Amino acid sequence: MNDPPVSSIESATDKAVVASGKFRIMVVDDEPSVRQAIAQYLSGEGFEVLEAANAFDALTLIHGLENIDGVIVDINMPGMDGLEFIRRVKQRDRTIVAVVITGLPSMSVIIEAMKAGASDFLAKPFKLSNLQVTIERLTRERRILLQNLLLTEEVKAKKTIEEINARLERKIKEQVILFKISDTLGKVKSMRELYQKVVSLACSLTETPQACFWVVNRELNKLLLMGAIGEYPRAWDEIDIDGSDLPCARVIKEGLPIVLIGDALKQPAAPNQSESGIPARDQIFVPFTMRDEVFGVLSVSRPKIQKPLGEEALFLLHLLAERTSLTVENLLLYESVALNLHSTLKALVRSLEAKDPYTKEHSRRVTDLSLRLAAHLGCTSIERDSLMFAGPLHDIGKIGVRDQILLKKGRLTREEYEIIKTHPVIGEEIVGNLGIVPMEKSIIRHHHERWDGHGYPDGLKGDDIPYLARIMSVADVFDAITTDRPYRKAASWHEALMEIKNNKGSQFDPKLVDAFEDLFMGKGMGLSVEPGSSLTGEDHV
Questions:
Q1: pTM for this one?
Q2: For labelling alongside 177, which of 48, 270, 316, 334 has CA 20 to 30 A away?
Q3: How far apart are the first and last CA of the chain?
Q4: The domain spanning residue 449 has which CATH number?
Q5: Neighbours of 517 (CB within 10 A)
Q6: Is 12 left (phi over 0), alpha (psi -120 to 50) or beta?
Q7: Is the C-alpha dihedral spanning 475, 477, 479, 482 positive or negative?
């Protein structure tokens, strides 16, 4: 017991390696003298030592411990031998180092011990110097195993973080793409516009120069090309689904996407001509479905010399197809509602025209003139659409005015004029119940307001009057002056222009009068009327 201490043992018990701050070793031997001698030596060298007389007690102790660094175990013990004990310890923690003690050392015994997981062995009887060397190896190996475990865990953690980051990046990219798709498609107002937006988005998302979008015509059993970018065979304009083996036709039949690598965009040969086609490309064809039925096919293609089309492009096209299908459903629903709305409004307009034939042509002319002035002023397409919709309806409220007043040939009395002045409000109520947009309702309600605030029905003044209502007011008065009415003859369009200029800043927005005169003098109004007497603003209803 007077052998010199092993200098490396202290470094092996470093707290960075052993969680408890002390190297913990379990000695398992059914011979008390051997077990106690080893334990006494190790305790003297600063180790924490646990003892067990058999493998079963040792396993019970180990299961109750938070950690253990090594075991020294006799091979031959009653009940469970040392090799089986080592196997079970290694199953619990492969970083626990094991040393076997044997009284009958042989190559076969050593090999079996190593297979079980032992790192070293001691042959009975042994000297303490032998034990010192063994313990030095044990502590060094334990440290290396723990460091390797930490490195392995770090690698795993790093890999996990990388996978999480990759998934996060993909999710962010997916959300950005979905926003781009939704934002673009959300501004679409018609099916025709939608088709072109789809092929444009397809090229942008997949970085391809060519895309086509077909829509299925079930009655004709054909694919009709509705949107395209780039070069494609002319035969693709209309494809017979049953009679074609083109990929787009197969997608309709099978309902699944098709990816072609290095194929040629073949164009069917004309009679007595050789087959021609566009050079080899990578292509993807994706079905567009709505309520489990394929209604369209989108294709993109890229020359073979460029980066191949793969799973990423297919994924992006699936996102586009998913969002487009929702947009198509919404557009179809909107167009169906709009169609019903227009039908209802047309019926109301026809009813008014039956009462007052003048109204039909008046509304058409006012709409046309309003659109010309709006275009000259640089109004947006949305504003022009509102004028186009509201123009034929701007006098729809007159349907609620008695025929005796509406069709009166003489001048109106003050009471009758007050009744006539209710028609913008009646008109707004009629269209309001049919769900048209506020901009269009405001045109119908406010086209008789005056710039000076003396108009009706609300007496709005200046810029408080909706801009489009101000435009229609100019067109409305101009047409009223230049057409025959039951109680007066039409004035010339030059006289009408002078009437409007005379009311600049009182009845009309000065800027709109200037624009109207510029339009009038620059291009003419294309009107042919007989000259007659002038009409004051008060006469116009």
A1: 0.43
A2: 334
A3: 124
A4: 1.10.3210.10
A5: 14
A6: alpha
A7: negative
